[in-house]
Amino acid sequence: MSDGPANLLDAARWYLARGYAPIPVPAGTKVPVLKGWTDLRLADADLPQHFNGTGSIGVLLGEPSGWLVDVDLDCEEAVALAPAFLPPTGAKSGRPGKPSSHWWYVCEGAKTRKHQDPATKKMIVELRSTGAQTVVGPSMHPSGEPYDPLEGEPAVVDVEALGAAVTALANAVIEQRHGCKERPRSQPTALGTRTFLADDAVLRRAVAYLDRIPPAISGSGGHGQTYAAATAMVHGFGLDPETAFGLLLDRYNPRCQPPWSEKELRHKVRDAASKPHDRPHGWLRDAEKPEDMGGVDLSGFDPERRRAAGERPRSERPPDPGSFPDHLLRVPGFIEQVVAHNLATATRPQPVLALAAGICLQAVLAARKVRDERGNRTNVYCVGVAPSGAGKDNARKVNKNILFAADMVEHEGNEDLASDAGLITAVEVEPAILFQIDEFGRFLRTIGDPKKAPHLFNVLTALMKLYSSADTVFRGKAYADKKRNKVVDQPCVSVYGTTVPEHFFESLTADSLSDGFIARLLVFESADTPARQRAKATGVPEPLKQAAEWWGSFKPGGNLAPEHPQPIVVEATPEAGAVFDALAAMVDAELGKPDEAGRSLWARAEEKACRLALIYACSANAPKPVIDEDAARWACDLSSYLTRRMLYIAHEWVADGVFDARQKRVVRVVRKAGGKISRSELCRKTQWLTQRERQEVIDNLLETQQLRQEEESSATRPRVWYVLA
What we know:
Blueprint: H1 8-17, E1 21-25, H2 47-50, E2 56-60, E3 68-73, H3 76-85, E4 92-95, E5 98-106, E6 113-116, E7 123-128, E8 133-136, E9 155-156, H4 159-178, H5 201-212, H6 222-236, H7 241-252, H8 262-274, H9 303-308, H10 334-345, H11 351-365, E10 370-372, E11 381-385, H12 393-405, H13 420-429, E12 432-437, H14 440-447, H15 454-467, E13 473-475, E14 487-489, E15 492-499, H16 501-507, H17 510-514, E16 521-525, H18 542-553, E17 568-570, H19 574-591, H20 596-602, H21 605-620, H22 629-653, H23 658-672, E18 676-678, H24 679-685, H25 691-703, E19 707-712, E20 719-724
Helix pairs in contact: 3-4, 4-7, 5-7, 6-7, 6-8, 7-8, 10-11, 10-12, 11-12, 13-15, 14-16, 19-21, 19-22, 20-22, 21-22, 23-25
């Protein structure tokens, strides 16, 4: 150093005495390799171990060094234009080949921001802060040139002013390189002070606007609020996207709970800039009284109004309840026998899927013949999810064979639902019916998109109505020709679908979660592919056949039962009632949370538990079913588990946009690899992303601490690994 020590150890002590956090950097590089270097906080006693005469020295930026930040000028134009845009400072450094390429400031709350050339994608200027470091003298640059020491006193600057100044500098370089028909009205001129200059009126008004609007709060429409704020910046004030991003990052984001990552916020701005708006461009900029925001409608930032308009709030990550609990696999009586026969005849035994199929079989056998005290019936919609080749077919075959052996084949519907008219006709012919559908995920994805197949979309609507019509009269579409009008008294429709995880989970959308159909499903997952067994094909065991035949002959209500059923009432014991009350209290608590998807799923949890308990009672004792404590506890535990698991699945698969979908998919790739994957392997398995898209996703996952990066030494260069946090 010109006035200080020249060796690394003395330099490290000198930087530490100034309040900066020094870190070791390998000689000839600019990148630290020490694991966890961003969290390294060396005391004076630690320095000799790390600075022993070789290598280089870096300084942690941002909070670890008292909010020391580095404006890194990465091109000649930025160096030349910097004095006209950046606030003056007493601390500048560089090296002989790039003098004064680093301008140093103390800027509390600053975040790292990078500005690239839109054509070449090469860096123009960086505002570097917490999470970054800069190599300083007496270190040597990889070119062999010595770095200047970090001397002088960095200027103390306002985070907003510095962010806007850096953005303006980058814009000026871009204009110089590529030209510009009209200088953006929002671009500030030189910002040598903590406040905007007089000709920066647009920026001042934009800042005043951001200060007035409410911040984004997790669970209260945060996505929509932030998108509205970005729209106000790029459309309302006519700011270029980079300037808008800078203002949102520095002024708006710190108030958000939690703050957005830079990648998330940048994508909000890009989305807002790329979409048209129904108001004139610059309507806020050109307002007659912009200083007091006269005529500005802030209703878009009202969480309650946005929620009332149907916006889905941002939710916190729910915990994973884990794999299917073993204690829920046993339902005594008929279902237990069905499961045993299923597993004995399966090439790959699947207990979870066998249970789901057995529940549906018991549901259709008891359909329109029993109800509980609340009026709930046995109709359920179950989905068995398992990997391809894991043995999903056998459960459907067992159900089919049992119904055939008991001479009850009329209770099994078609395997393909081609239209709502066909569905309703089948229900009209046989109101107690079970539809077994393979590739249910593809089916759901098809019927859930009204644009692709409007006639199939109506199937979804019909299934939802039928689900809730088991205790009343179902009426189909109204036609002028009254002969075509369908009326079914107490239809009891059950569905057992099978699918692979990817097809089912990819079919999930925010709309399908909120519209109530997914909330009606009981999703049974089996993540394993069981070992193959030498199963023997056997006929339906006689006890199973007789049990099914008993239900076929059981006709409460006499001869009029087919036209107007009079089901028997299955009562619940007081102990069972207490279990249901506990579930109801838990559901009420969950419904009080702001997560819309969660509310939709929990709203059906108690109803599904009641239906499951009724099915349990029918299985345990067909002649005299009673909903006892065991039935209630099994049903409530199962309903609760499946609801929590679906909430977790929704968080992992349902995306808020294209970028969010990319992130979730990359996380799933890492998780499938065992939670740790090399960079090369991740690149190979994400070829659906461009190199830039992949890097943006990885950067944001690291920034949001969903991934962490590890390096492994090798003979050539360090191997980079990504690990799920």
